[in-house]
Amino acid sequence: MQVRTGHITALRLFDIAYAIDLSKAEGLWARRAGTSTRSKLSATPPKAMSFGVPPVSLRLDPVFLPLGETAAVTARVYDFGVVVIALRLAIVDLAWDGFTALMNAAAHSVGSDAVTPWDGLLAQVRDALGEALERPRRVAIEEDYLIGTVHAFNEDLTAAALTDRLDLVPLLSGEQRALSDTARADLLRSRFSYYADDLAVLTWDRAFIYEPRGDSDVADVIEVANAQLLEMRYYDELLDDELPRMYDLVETTRRTANFMQSRRYAKLARGLYTLVAEVTELTEKVDNALQVTGDVYLARIYAAALELFRVRVVAAAVDRKLSIIRDTYTALYDEAQSSRSAVMELSIILLIVVEIVLAVVRPERTHDRWRLLRNGRATLILRLIWLLRVRRALLVRRLILLLLLNLLLLRRLVAGT
Q1: SS3 breakdown of the chain: % helix, strand, coil, rounded to 5?
Q2: CB 368 within 8 Å of CB 304
Q3: Strand, helix or coil at 120?
Q4: CA 5 from centroid of its chain's CA atoms
Q5: Distance from C-alpha of 263 to C-alpha of 269, rounded to nearest angstrom
Q6: Least confident interval from 71-80, 286-295, 358-367
Q7: Edge-to-edge, what's the strand order for the sheet holding 56-64?
Q8: pTM of the full predicted structure?
């Protein structure tokens, strides 16, 4: 059996920024390197399934791989900060065993332990799109995936005949030794067909696609699922680092007993709220990267990819950590409010003490001044001014004291409810 036409695609995904302005990226790439296009699913109507925000596709110069083949290079840029670089090896008239061997060789040639072109290609994209990157990241986390696609064999095959006549296990596992029946069954469990002559088989890190019509929709869906996994991994690791730091900051703030404590609580609470808002906004963008409404076949493949890649498990972990941070934010906000209330109550008590002291001391001073006025040491006008000033001051102080007492009672009532 020979593969008449097809290709092997190695994907490497990088999370390089908080977000990417795709309109600006298109303009920057057009000025520096050439044209760019907005991606869409090739054969699926937009009403059935479409990109939430269509990514920008860029074409780079071909590269020569260590396995002795030249690969076409494209990059796809997503608005939530992910760049996907694809190396594609065209296949023409190659025996099935040779196709399997080339796919395994490609996996070793572009793997993490080999000398690969990924860093240089990523540097090209970074340099060209630098102004479009919002809060770029120096160290990008990565994901990789390998897809073998066949458009035609040397004879027409149905999906059933293909799985009967060809062994997909060595291609999907990369193993040279024979696998057990259980391992083979697990590896081939995620198989999908819509027409009698198409087939898609997905695993954790590889996929095989038989598509006589040349559609790329299945590969696009797999790519989006990988991009979602990468972004969720980034935020899971970010929150893992943030939680211990948050606990340390809370403990440090609690040990600091002074009048600035409420401000420190409020500042820390604002920082946590900002973090929650940012992570929530980006995870919603990631969740809406692909809108699935009417294409049942692609929806099943998409759901299977999310399950295989454990995207929902990682997303659930992110949600749990966000919930912890939200609860901490609420507790810090309540403590800041309590601290402010304590300071205000102390201020009111001090004002009451001052008023009592003035009430005790003031009569003697008032009596002395009145006696001086009666002895004729001041004019009539000065006597009137002094009397008005004393009465006004007493009235203002009493009004302020009454207002503060009412505020104190109100806070006690609110706290009690």
Answers
A1: 55, 20, 20
A2: no
A3: helix
A4: 39
A5: 10
A6: 358-367
A7: 36-38, 56-64, 70-77, 82-95, 2-15, 142-153, 206-210, 199-202, 191-192
A8: 0.74
